[in-house]
Amino acid sequence: MGAGMFFCRRPEAIKHAFAITTSYMPNAIAGDTVDPYTTTAQWSRRAIGFKVFMALAELGTSGYGELIERLAQMGDYLRKRLRQLGWEVVNETMLPVVCFTHPDMVNQTKHYLNLIG
Asked: What's phi and psi for 71, nearest 5 deg?
């Protein structure tokens, strides 16, 4: 299971976006304490963020930033190489997420779809 973080300068917006009350969740915490049950989408999976915390603790913010930059560069390199090899990149994003297909595969798919219907 993946983990990530979302940063927002307005804690009220986060509280409003994730606010929920159900019988199976703990009661709200009084005071200024930030409760992950009421400020995250993960609710009872509090330890899932531990992966991100440990990565930040190990690398620091500058090291984590370098890691993200490296991943973005690798995504750019993959897009470039795929296009050079005749593949079609079907999404455009700054993130290192590359969706691609090959023209031959598109034509084959269209052919088989026409056969069935």
From this structure: -65, -40
Cα distance between residue 104 and residue 41, in whole Å:
41
Q: In the 8-state DSSP scheme, what is residue 100?
A: E
Structure tokens at 37: 């049950």
Better-scored residue on pLDDT, 112 or 31: 112
**What DSSP string runs through 45-68?**
-GGGGHHHHHHHHHHHHHHHHHHH
Q: Which residues contact 1 (CB under 8 A, 6 or more apart)?
A: 45, 48
- Name the residue with higher pLDDT: 18 or 69: 69
Residue 86 has pLDDT above 60, yes or no: yes
CA distances from 101 to 4, 11, 14, 34, 93 (A): 28, 41, 38, 45, 16
Q: What is the pLDDT of residue 87?
A: 93
